Amino acid sequence: MSLEISTDERVELLDVTSEVAAAVPEELDAGVCTVFVPHTTAGVVVNENESRLLRDVERLLAELAPRGDDYDHDAIDDNADAHLRATLLGSNVSIPVEDGELALGTWQSVLFVECDGPRTRRLRVTTTPS
Predict the structure, then answer these.
(1) Sorted alphabetically, which Pfam families does this protein's record hold (predicted)?
(2) What is the pTM of this model?
């Protein structure tokens, strides 16, 4: 299943947990849900959806891969920082499924991380029985 995600900012974290959960078949007793971002300037993580933490993540990404830091790739399209940030984040997460539901921890959410927005993106969600 493919989900469409729209962002409004260059760097933005969006909680997509409910959209991912809706893609899990109710009849799947046990398995794995994989969320994959087919883009090189966006990522996906599992963490807490708390506004101060989200700002902290944005700040960390800016510190680790600052924009305009004389990257070679910027000569092509001026977004090397977005590619580097996405590399740090990763393009996929795997979440256990139990009784047809995501088996996330109490404070865990699936977060889509835009690094080169605003854009409309896709997320691919697949489930595999175990």
Answers:
(1) YjbQ (PF01894)
(2) 0.97
